[in-house]
């Protein structure tokens, strides 16, 4: 049979029986732990306070930054609107405004950078406003100048229209005068042509024709006496005589007849030192060389005239031609032979 258990027996002691020192040690540990916890709580409370202050400061800065950006955008948009409203007057003014808008945009970007970097931007913002006002003042001055130029151009256009009208009127008058002058010139030309024709007819009519032309070869003796000869080697001199016909058109007075002697070869006999020269054949409109001249006092009737040619050299055999001119026209011809 088993032996009954005695629950009133003392438990065995393994060395952990509390005493006074252990109790103190435990109290000390618990105090340290409570102090650490209190310090941690204080630290957490301070950290939370600081974080809260920082968050409030950051929120305030962000609000101010947002407000600055809003103000900058408003000023920039206002400047753009005001400048854009000034466009449309002239291409030159539009180009000026575009350049100003580009400058303002650059300033806006610079101010945005200052705001973003939390740097002082108020003075830059004020400078932006001054620059905008200065640009607007420049544009207004340019508008006034353009207006003045437009007014001047309008005045000049009016003056040009008046001048054009006056010019057209003047040109019309000049055209009429030119037409009248052309008609007068044409009439004058016709009159001059008619007058020249009449003058030529009168000139031709006034030329004194001749007849009975005779040419005699003579031998001049040492005593001055002349003897008629027909052989070329015996002839020293040619005497050409003729009779003028009556002409009532030609005025009375001294008349000159140009005698042209052509040798058998067709060459005119001429020696300048003996009185030969050049005259005008009016009918042929060309010059001719004459041998000598003969003059007379013409009284509108028949007059006997003689001329002579003594060259001081021998003549050649053959048939010679004699042409007589008066006032530039051929008035008589004849021929003769030397054996």
Q: Report the uncertain regions.
A: 1-11, 13-17
Percent of residues in helices: 40-55%
Distance between the termini: 223 Å
Overall pLDDT score: 83
Verbal overview:
The chain has 339 residues and is of the alpha+beta class. It has 2 domains: 26-172, no CATH class; 209-338, Immunoglobulin-like (Sandwich). Helix content is 52%, strand content 22%. The chain contains 3 helices and 10 strands. The protein has a 4-stranded antiparallel β-sheet with strand order 2-1-3-8, with no helix packed on it. A hairpin with a 4-residue loop joins strand 5 and strand 6. Helix 1 (20-84) runs antiparallel to helix 2, helix 1 (20-84) packs parallel to helix 3 (122-206) and helix 2 runs antiparallel to helix 3. Residues 1-11 and 13-17 have low confidence and may be disordered.
Task: Please outline what is shown here.
The protein is an alpha+beta fold and 339 residues long.
Question: Which properties best describe this structure?
Answer:
339 residues, 2 domains, rod-shaped, 10 strands, Immunoglobulin-like, 4-stranded antiparallel β-sheet, disordered N terminus, 3 helices, alpha+beta
């Amino acid at each position: 049979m088993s032996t009954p258990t005695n629950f009133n027996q003392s438990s065995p002691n393994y060395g952990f029986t509390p005493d006074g020192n252990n109790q103190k040690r435990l109290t000390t540990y618990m105090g340290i732990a409570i102090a650490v916890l209190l310090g941690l709580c204080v630290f957490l409370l301070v950290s939370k306070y600081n974080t809260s202050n920082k968050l409030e400061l950051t929120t305030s800065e962000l609000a101010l930054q947002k407000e600055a950006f809003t103000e900058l955008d408003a000023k920039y948009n206002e400047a753009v609107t005001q400048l854009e409203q000034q466009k449309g007057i002239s291409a030159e003014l539009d180009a000026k405004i575009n350049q100003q808008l580009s400058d303002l945009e650059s300033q806006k970007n610079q101010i945005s950078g200052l705001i973003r970097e939390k740097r002082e931007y108020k003075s830059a913002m004020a400078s932006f406003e001054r620059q905008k006002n200065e640009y607007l003042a420049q544009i207004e001055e340019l508008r006034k100048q353009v207006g003045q130029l437009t007014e001047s151009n309008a005045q000049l256009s009016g003056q040009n229209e008046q001048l054009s009208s006056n010019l057209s009127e003047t040109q019309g008058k000049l055209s009429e005068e030119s037409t009248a002058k052309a008609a007068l010139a044409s009439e004058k030309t016709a009159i001059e042509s008619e007058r020249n024709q009449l003058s030529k007819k009168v000139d031709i009519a006034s030329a004194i024709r001749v007849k009975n032309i005779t040419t005699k070869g003579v031998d001049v003796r040492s005593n001055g006496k002349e003897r008629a000869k027909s052989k070329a080697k015996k002839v020293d001199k040619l005497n050409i005589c003729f009779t003028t016909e009556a002409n009532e058109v030609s005025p009375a007075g001294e008349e000159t007849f140009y005698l042209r002697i052509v040798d058998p070869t067709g060459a005119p006999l001429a020696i300048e030192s003996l009185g030969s020269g050049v005259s005008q054949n009016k009918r042929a409109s060309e010059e001719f060389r004459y041998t000598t001249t003969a003059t007379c006092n013409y009284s509108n009737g028949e007059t006997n005239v003689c001329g002579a040619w003594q060259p001081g050299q021998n003549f050649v055999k053959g048939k010679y031609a004699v042409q007589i001119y008066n006032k530039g026209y051929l008035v008589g011809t004849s021929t003769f032979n030397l054996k």
